[in-house]
Probable malate:quinone oxidoreductase
Amino acid sequence: MSKTIDVALIGGGIMSATLGALLHRLEPSWSIEVFERLSEVGQESSNPWNNAGTGHAALCELNYMPEGKDGSMTTAKAVDINEQFQLSRQLWASFVEDGTLPDPAGFISPTPHMTFVWGEDNVDYLRRRWELLKDEPLFAGIEYSEDAEVIRGWAPTLIPGRKKSQPIAATRSTDGTDVDFGALTRMLLGRLQEDGARVHTDVTVTGLKRRADGDWRLRVRSEVGQNTHEVHARFVFVGAGGGALKLLQQSRIPEAKGFGGFPITGAFLRTDNPEIVARHTAKVYGKASVGAPPMSVPHLDTRVVDGEASLLFGPYAGWSPKYLKTGSYTDMFETIKGHNLWPMIRAGLANFDLVGYLMGEVFASRQQRLDALREFMPDAKDEDWRLITAGQRVQVMKRDPDKGGVLQFGTEVVTGADGTIAGLLGASPGASTAVHIMLTIFERCFPERMPAWRETLTELIPSYGTKLNDDPEAARETLARTARVLRLVEEPEPVVAGGTAASATP
């Protein structure tokens, strides 16, 4: 007879790791098992070379404050994304304080977030964006300059070789971070294993079906030996990245109907040249090309992996029918069903500019890619950079009552009506807002348990249930606390009488 577990987490990435860590804290007696098709966890979208790792906080990403046709802008989306990232920072800080996570330097690094634009219209836009953001408590301290020497001081690689007559502008926030979500995933799942959870690698969940008794039956295939067995679970989380859509369709929950997926491949130029890397310690975002999806906003990023810094520039978009970097060329076609065909067609017809953009990216030469880099770093040399393939992103296509179907950028939470299954579709901001996503799942799937869980959740995430941006003092205190605990700021030297640091002698 197949065993029944409390929680099955499909996919060994940051989403499953975050949900598992929270559920274990809330319900220590629950049995939790993770199923990952690769030989290691955190190797698809959570892998540090497969994502930008910004710690999305809307400090530099312009797509969270688009300009309306009348020139108007609102800070609402940017503030909302920052609020969500602060939930993640608070949980990580709490886990560092109680020993769940080890040295935070292993997964998070202080890295200023900048936006850099050129051209009079873009400079005007960035100035107006800054004017709106600088008074928001969560964006306190964000700086703005049109002075080339000031910008050179922030990011020296942006200025040499640039025409002095070119209008330029930049913003900078020193609250920014670089996050290695692969390392964070391994830390969280490693601790879960130590506490009794089971993490299975080299296994693929090939089937998902509701049983008559209300539990879920998972058909699990071992990639070594190809033997198959069943696992029964009371609650299932489908956090399998691009593989989630197919499994949610197999579940036959009505909430998954009408969803389709459009895969987009990413690639980056990378350099490990220590002289270049030392000159650029920031994440610098620009403005997207016309027709480009939000995930393709160009950026020149510091990346810190295993303690070593590199620079990435991109992403350069492409197309493949795979839903995972290690997936199959039949992925997209296997998920086309009668219920999502029309929404997919309508979404495609409404996004011809995206198709044109992708065609240009697919056939771009190395020289064209380097030319795009030189718009950010004018003195970049060809020989210092190599092209690497990043992860697959699957943009959500879904039903729309007015348009028939729309292409949605972002992360979609799908939950069954009875609260026994949840899954995620979509892409950015994804990993950075994992804690907010899990809280959403709790509220939808475990409403009867939330009163009992609230005290623990508030201990772990002090701002849970409130808005930091509505309370400037709380925003300052929270940012300061998480920065201190996560070692994003240097601790001041202790001062004793006489003005020197020393330890007291009894």
The chain has one domain: 4-445.
